[in-house]
Amino acid sequence: MIASAVLMLLSAAVRLVYYFAVSPYTVQTYDLFVHIMLPVVCCASFAVTVLIKKNMKYTVWCVFAGCAFFIIKSFAFETTHMILCILLYCAVGALYALTAFGKIKTFIPIIIVFTLPLAVHIGTDIGELSVGTEISGYMPELSVVLIMAALLTYSIAEMKKKAVRQSK
After folding, report:
1. What range does the domain containing 51 cover?
2. Which phi-psi region, left, alpha or beta, contains residue 54 (left: φ > 0; alpha: ψ -120 to 50)?
3. What pTM was estimated for this model as a whole?
4. What are the pLDDT digits (tens) for 18-37?
5. Number of domains in the chain
6. Which residues are CB-contacts of 77 (< 8 A; sequence separation ≥ 6)?
7. pLDDT tens-digit series, residues 50-84
C-alpha cells in the first residue's frame, strides 16, 4: 500500500516539475487545470486516502477523477482513438468501482486492465527513447506510467489483503 502511495506522489511530483520547472512558459489556464491540477489532486488524494483510510472503496472517486483526466486528454486524439479511449476509461472506472465495492469478487480483471497498458506504455516509451533525446520531454508520459504502476501495485496489495482475510 505504501508503494502505491509513493508511486502516486512521484507521479504528481514529476508532473509539477515538468510543467513548472522544465516548460514553465507553456502553461496556459487550460493546462493549469486539466494537465496539472486535476492529475496532481487525484494522485495526492489517492495517496492520502490509501495511507489513512486503508480501504479501496474510498479510492474510487480518485480513480473516477483520474479517468476524467484521461478522457479529457483524449479529446486531442483523432476521433476513433478518442472514442476508444473514452470507452476504455469509462470501463476502467466502472471495473475499479465494481471491484472496490465487492461486486466483482476477483481482482484478476482489474490487474489485467492495469498491467497491459502499463506494459504497452513502457515498451513504446523505451522504444521512443534515443541517444541525445531530452528526457524532460517524456516527463508527462512518465507521470502516466507511474499512475498505472501505482494502481497495479495497489490492486495487487488489495488482492493479497483480501486473501489473508479469507484465510483466517
Report:
1. 2-167
2. left
3. 0.89
4. 888 766 666 678 778 888 89
5. 1
6. 85
7. 999 988 999 999 999 999 999 998 999 999 999 99
